Amino acid sequence: MRNSFKRIPNHIGVIPDGNRRWAVERGMKKGDGYYHGIDPGFQLYELCKELGVKELTLYGFTTDNTKRPAEQKEAFQKACVEAVMDLTRRDANLLVVGNTKSPSFPKELLPFTERVRFGDGTINVNFLVNYGWEWDLNHKGGMASRDISRMDLIIRWGGRRRLSGFLPVQSVYADIYVLDELWPDFLPEQFYKALDWYQDQDITLGG
Amino acid sequence: MRNSFKRIPNHIGVIPDGNRRWAVERGMKKGDGYYHGIDPGFQLYELCKELGVKELTLYGFTTDNTKRPAEQKEAFQKACVEAVMDLTRRDANLLVVGNTKSPSFPKELLPFTERVRFGDGTINVNFLVNYGWEWDLNHKGGMASRDISRMDLIIRWGGRRRLSGFLPVQSVYADIYVLDELWPDFLPEQFYKALDWYQDQDITLGG
After folding, report:
1. How close does chain A come to B14, measured CA to CA in Å?
2. If you measure CA to CA, which chain A residue comes closest to B201?
3. Residues whose CB is less than 8 angstroms from the CB of residue B33 and which lie 6 or more positions away in sequence, other chains included
4. Catalytic residue check, B175
5. Which residues on B lie below 8 Å from A151 (Cβ)?
6. What's this model's pTM, rounded to 2 decimal places?
7. What is the distance between the alpha carbons of residues B18 and A100, in angstroms, rounded to a whole number?
8. Which of the residues B163, B177, B203, B205 would you substitute to probe the A interface, choosing the one with the greatest number of A C-beta atoms within 10 Å?
9. What are B28-69's pLDDT values in tens digits?
10. What is the pLDDT of residues B174-191, one digit of tens each?
11. For residue B121, what pLDDT band results from cuts at 50, 70 and 90?
12. Which among A65, A168, A175 has the least Cβ separation from residue B162?
């Protein structure tokens, strides 16, 4: 692992895009891509932990996404459940944020909608599952994502240069780095490239 | 003018960054850069109008920015007032959005905090003046920027890959294009480059 970074973001947000394009490129069904997005998430999680990143937020799936065909919807729901379950066997302060009142929210993840500590809990991991930005902002009693802190760096895989509704408030000052590689093709070098770029960004928080 | 674009964004947001760096590069005082950012705005406005863009939003200055030294603050306030006044002599449905209750809001712009039509009003022009994203979202009676529509394309000059608090809700699905050139060095070619790139972006609105 590289550990030569002089500046490590406290909180990294990840938009793991490109699963469906990756599957199609391989002659697979679109929905088959999500399964291949699980392991990259753990590779990234381990790197973050080793580098001392304090908080990691993963964009699982959104209420917008649930309008996709059933086969895809079931595939990304299953991938999220599997990822969260695997995380409970590692070290994390885990929080799942999403609209639990909709049938699209996987019931298996209900126990994690309050932050739960697993292992030594050295890193906060937030998972957005059946998340919607409007749902978040218009939540009764304050933002639904209020326990997620401001993000310093957002890394998006899959080439699109947009936020796609990812935590509008926590992303206001984030530096945004886009990688063209599709998420299932994750390599540590891609992550390091984003961190290298981040070294030279000034932080002004809008000032 | 080029008019070969098959797809024109309805609403373009502009972050005109780099005025201070531009001034410093020329041995000028930081605040002197803002004056040189006015004419580029009108060049861009004319191009948008000719291309049939329906709405254009310019990020003037923010409540965060007002913490800068007085010389800079006065300079960007003056530049915003001058830009808006010039616009009243052109064609626009003009709306200024910002916190009018703070002394940092230029009083000359109060008449434009409700949308006003000038000329043939073929384009909505929104100017954010003393704008704050928290102020916007927590505004009593709904978002302060509720009369500004969702943005399709955000173009940022000056190389920073971030939103810096620019309309968090209207930017959720926007494609974001960053140009390394500093704003006072604006050239039509830079705008066309952003539009060329936009041609090939798929629009999913998060779906």
Report:
1. 15
2. A160
3. B18, B19, B20, B21, B22, B23, B24, B75, B184
4. no
5. none
6. 0.97
7. 43
8. B163
9. 999 999 999 999 999 999 999 999 999 999 999 999 999 999
10. 999 999 999 999 999 999
11. confident
12. A175
Chain-chain contact of B165 with A206 (C-beta, under 8 angstroms): yes
Q: Is B17 a catalytic residue?
A: yes
B198 touching chain A per CB within 8 A:
no
DSSP structure string for B25-49: HTT--GGGGGGGGHHHHHHHHHHHH
The C-alpha atoms of residue A129 and residue A132 are separated, in whole angstroms, by 9
Calculate mean pLDDT across residues A5-27: 97
Q: Are B175 and B201 in contact (CB under 8 A)?
A: yes
With an 8 Å Cβ cutoff, is A177 touching chain B? yes
Of residues A180, A177, A174, A173, the one with CA closest to residue A155: A177
B65 touches chain A (CB under 8 A): yes
Q: Is A69 on the interface with B (CB under 8 A)?
A: no
Q: Mapping DSSP to helix (H, G, I), strand (E, B) and coil, where does residue B129 land?
A: strand
Q: Which residues contact A168 (CB under 8 A, 6 or more apart)?
A: A133, A136, A137, B168, B169, B171, B172
| Sequence-ordered list of residues with C-beta below 8 angstroms from that of A186, at least 6 positions apart, any chain | A40, A43, A44, A157
Q: Which residues pair with B126 in a beta bridge?
A: B57, B95
Asked if pLDDT for residue A1 goes beyond 70, the answer is: no
Looking up tokens 């007002």 gives: B66
Q: Give the number of other Cβ atoms within 10 Å of residue B176's Cβ.
A: 23
* Helix, strand, coil abundance in chain B, percent, nearest 5: 35, 20, 45
Residue A3 has pLDDT above 90, yes or no: no
Phi-psi region of A95 (alpha: psi -120 to 50; beta: other; left: phi over 0): beta
**CB of A151 closer than 8 Å to CB of A12:** yes
Residue range A20-40, pLDDT digits in tens: 999 999 999 999 999 999 999
Tokens 């200055």 correspond to B61
Residue ranges of alpha helices (H) inside A94-149 are: 133-137
Chain A residues within an 8 Å CB radius of B204: 164
Q: Which residues of A are part of the catalytic machinery?
A: 17, 65
Q: Is A9 exposed, middle or buried (0-12, 13-18, 19+ CB in 10 A)?
A: buried
| B146 at A interface, C-beta within 8 A | no
Cβ neighbours of residue A91 under 8 Å, at least 6 residues apart? A49, A118, A119, A120, A121, A122, A123
Among B162, B173, B207, the residue with its CB nearest the CB of A176 is B162
